[in-house]
Amino acid sequence: MTLGAWISRKKAPPIPDEIRGPDGETVVTDEQVRLGKKAFQANGLMNHGSILGNGSYFGVDLTADALESKAAHMREYYARQHGADAFESLEAADRAAVEHRVEDELGARLSEKRTRESERAGARERADALEGSIARYSAAEVYAHRRIRDEYVDRYYGGSPERGIPEGYVDSAEQAERIADFACWTAWMAHTNRPDSDHSYTNDWPYVPAAGNRPTGQVVVWSTIGVVLLIAGGGIGVWAYHSFDVAEPTTELVDVPGPDSVSVTPAQYAAARYVPVAGALFVAQALVGALLAHYYVERTGFYGIGDALGIDVVSLVPFSVGRTWHVNLGILWITTLWLAGGLFLPGLFTDGDPPWQAEGATALLGALVAITVGAFAGVWLGTRGAFGSPGTDGDDGDLWWWLGSEGLEYLEVGRVWKVGLLAGFVTWTGLVLRGVRRMDEPPTGLGHFVTYSGGSIALMFAASMLYTPDTNIAVTEFWRWWVVHMWVEGVFEFFVTAVTSAALVSMNLIEKPTAEKAILFEVFAIMGAGIVGVSHHYWWVGLPDVWVPIGTTFSTLEFVPLVFVLYRSLGEYRSLKARGEEFPYTLPLLFILGSSVWNFVGGGVLGFFINLPLINYYEHGTYLTVAHAHTATFGAFGLLALGLGTYILRVVTPESAWDPTWFRGAFWLTNVGLVVMTLASLLPIGFLQLQTAYRDGYAAARSLEFYERDRVQTLLWARTLGDTPMILGALAFTVASVRHLVAARRRRVANG
């Protein structure tokens, strides 16, 4: 992957110094494109719509929108040359001639270069000539580019309420024009062939037939290979699981120590304070998620409440801000519970805490709360222009980048806040390591695995420091997915395996040596496929072709180790059934089992389905991705986090005060909510989008007209049926956390 970073940077799509019309007039410069990228990020447009298919699905994908509009305006231009007012008014023969001319201009030619290097022969010279080049537009392209600028000024500066865009969404008409320039450049690289290639920088994505963009041959071939690999890999995986000595939870009744017999350390009490804080973040995330879901059906308000109170809800909390909060709240509450688990578990295997361990855990929690508040306030202030207005000539400041929002999905918060979060991760790793060192175990011991997995989260997060506002968007996407994917399908899986194994050992379900063996087996399988599997995010963003075969192969194999996890979860379930209700850790184990099942469904089944190149070509950036994201992120990692929180409180709460009712309710409410949300809304909408993309083009599947269809509106309303139990489940968990933390505090006071 490090070698891939060098190759990707070297072969990233160029930004021509200038794009000129046929008369030599400059249409757009590289500086205007770069200013447009900054304006796109500073205004949070990646959380309103998307670019190159990555981002939010509420608004249009700017790449597809610009390319579709470009083709349409070019057709209009040539139609007028034929004496017609509109393309649709042409005779059939003339219409076919115009279609062919536009497709020929956009779909099958290298842009003309006017540099000394371009006159040299050879592939290397032609590739080098891309830097410092002058690209040429036809007269029709010049006309289209200017029309798109006008449309973006009307939409993002003038306002478009039906799209959920209030008036003055961006600070000036000039800023909107720069965003259009950036969008048009991504459209340019989507239809301009890579040197010595018969397809564009984005592998001819998005699907815009009018521009000549269709799936390439390698997309079809590697999709076929992916299916073959799945069948072969699945069979080999099952054979390996049964051939090697992989630890299984015992199904025999064993003596499990009750929570009252466990000596709780001050650091473990401090870790327990993280649980209700995470619960509050979970409630906030669920509420914001419901607001965002409703924005899809009522883009100018919220159940009429804003009108009744005289509040413009859309202007106060634009979709882009709400989605930024929603995404980051999800990461934060899950991470908070994982941090708590990492601080809590070593104390179960030692006699006491290192000096100042409890104080360190408490200080870390306070710092994380302060950073979260600052980061979320910075995002809101940044999108309101409080930290400058990039995209405007003469505004060279990057304060928005440092204190506001970087504007990149999942990694939105300003750089100052990210540095603080990174420092928090490093501090947490140090605290856990201090506790683990008291366990008297080798570097391959259970506690060390927990430390390694947690430290890896910080290590991968550091990659988000490797780009700046001026970095090419393709290279920026390389590093963004380096963090996000390697978290979700790499080190998060590592952490899940390590922490689950540690919890099972502490429950006396498996022996410590066999748990360590299982971690070695599963982690090498998971990370061996998951890390390089990040490549499937690189297919359509302008990165080299080499990522298509690599991404297909490893993304397919990611499914195989999840079979191992499912097998283990079934073993844990048999163990649970053998103990009956007398087993004191039934509920925490139930959450862990649910996590394993959803990991298989969301990360495995849905993940494999949408990551076949041919399907992903049409599906990329649709509700099928939303279904995968929700089932994999909340189902796999969220439920594990809730299980860890429940386990922590089960241990620190006296037996007499333990009441499983609220936690059990949280488990079933969140699971029912996720099932209903997925089956009644997300998947049906996703399949309709897939059908629309294949039939009418990608832009149509992401258009306002698609979301306003009666059937789609009904399915969007059905999302409420899943959101409601999810919110109630979050509330139930939070209430239970506060009640049991109070009981634990009384126990601690009573014990002196």
The helix fraction, in percent, is 55-70%
Tally of helical runs: 28
Distance between the termini: 53 Å
Roughly what is the average pLDDT, rounded to an integer?
86
Strand order of the largest sheet: 2-1-5
Taking all Cα atoms into account, the compactness measure Rg is: 27 Å
Shape: globular
How many strands?
5
How much of the residues is beta strand, in percent? under 5%
Low-confidence stretches: 108-131
What oligomeric state best describes the polypeptide chains here? Answer: single chain
Secondary structure class reads mainly alpha
**Largest β sheet strand count, sense and barrel closure:** 3 strands, mixed
Explain this structure to me?
The protein is mostly helical. Helices cover 66% and strands 2% of the residues. It contains 28 helices and five strands. The strands form two sheets. A three-stranded mixed β-sheet has the order 2-1-5. Strands 3-4 form a two-stranded antiparallel ribbon. α3 packs across α7. It is globular, with a radius of gyration of 27 Å. About 3% of the residues have low confidence. One of its GO terms (molecular function) is heme binding. It holds the Pfam family COX1.
